[in-house]
Amino acid sequence: MNITNKRGLLDLAAAFFLIMFFATNALSLTSEISPARISITSLYHGGKLVVTGETVPDEEIIVKFSSPESKFDLRKKGKAGGLFWMNIGELEFNRVSDVYLLYATKEIGSILSDKQQDQYSLGYDAFRRLVEVSPVTSEPDKVKWIKEFIKFKEKNGIYGIFTSGIETEIKDNKKIYKLSIDWPYQAPPREYTVSVYSVKDNAVQDYNETPLLVEKVGALKFISNMAFNNASVYGIVSILIAIAAGFIVSVIFKGGGGGSH
Amino acid sequence: MYFYLPIALTSISLPLIVGLGLLVGLLSGLFGVGGGFLMTPLLIMIGIPPTVAAASDSLQIVGASTTGTFAHWRLGNVDFKMGIYLLIGGFAGGLGGVRLIEMLRMMGNADFVIKVTYVLMLGIVGTYMFFESLDSLKKAKHAKHATQAAETPPAPKKESGFVKFLKSLPLQTKFEKSGVTHSALLVIMLGGFVGVLAAIMGVGGGFLMVPVMVYLLRMPMHVVVGTSLFQILFTCIEVSFLQAYVNHTVDFVLAVLLLLGSTFGAQIGTKLGRKLHGDQLKILLAAIVLVVTVKILLDLLLEPSSLLSLKGGH
């Protein structure tokens, strides 16, 4: 065996070990969402959601709940005539998620580089860098409105970044994690993505995504389907029921001794 | 106990929403106002999207004003003839008002005009009603003393030039239930005027229609309340249907929950109203209108907690 062949074998072995190393890491992160589907019934007021899984011991965990990025139109308030606070126009926010809840074992900025934050849309700093706002007059103006957007969403309970909530323990040389959250009732019915990231050395080592379906069921689904697909019947039936309710109460009160002419 | 609203896409506390309905229904039965100027901002405050709040409130008013109109009709307090004339004007005025808003939006200053009109109208109507009814209450007190001292009836008032002008208008019609005679044209025009303002402000217009009936049409307060409710019923049926058909913003569950409170509230209000003097009713309504005016003024002057809001609503 000559030197070239030896070098070739060594390269092959190194490549094999590298592949094995990353494959081991790639397989190390697991995640499971329970339940995978949240049903909205008439008495719905949010739900309980548990994300569990395991990774290698020295990695941090980030769990993100988000909806597909889209466009958002909101009214902006400002001073009109230098005196009155009122709506002075509209703003269009592009590349934003309707719901954005992020849980991490450590502060995002301390465990991930800016580049990685941007690549995976993790944290408000990345959010500020990635979101497009129009019309804005300057960079500070853009920053101001993005800050207001986050505040507006956080007030509604559908945006938030938390460094508490994920419980971890080391078992059999694995890091077991568990996140239990109260899924906000303000999050509208749709398909969400639950993304779990394992992080080490300022970079995402592995991630996986699981869909989470939040949907209306039963009478609630029937009513909203009717409101959108059969609007005229929905309008007429609603009005008739409102009038009937008014009459029924009138009759009840008449029985209770209503007035006379 | 919470209920999920299928169109508003949020969950709401049952006691809170029924309580809110009860309160606004009470005001509706007492004063003959739909209560939209109170209910819609309250609904937005508790997290209902503005467009859904305004549309569902109009459906709720259909139920509350049905029971209110029915209760007042049994008491003989509805002037159907006057109500229909005002309705004709109101529909025409509403259409005109919507066009006006479209024009203002194109010019880009609609919100400013709406807010200023709202504050001015509420402020003027509230202040005038408050002092006028305070004055009447004082006069009534004095008159009582005077009658006790000398049993002489007060001298009849001299007709003003304005009243003479009103009487000279064509199509003079007698409105038996209200005991007044007015030109049908005047009634339709006043209905139209309120319709324009109501469309601009995005409210039913009850709080404007009531003073118009009391001060310009000189109708007795109790007939005013019943007639106003009758007129509001039809306006809100039209609005509810259009909102459901065009905008898909009527939340049936929200309206039904509000109705649970408001229909009972309207009945209680009607009964309570019978125990109060017309001037007492007016002064109470004036006080509520003034409180709402102050609240809107403060909202305009103080920096809001959030500089962004959803589109729609008043």
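qc> Residues 2-144+162-301 of chain B form one domain.
qc> done
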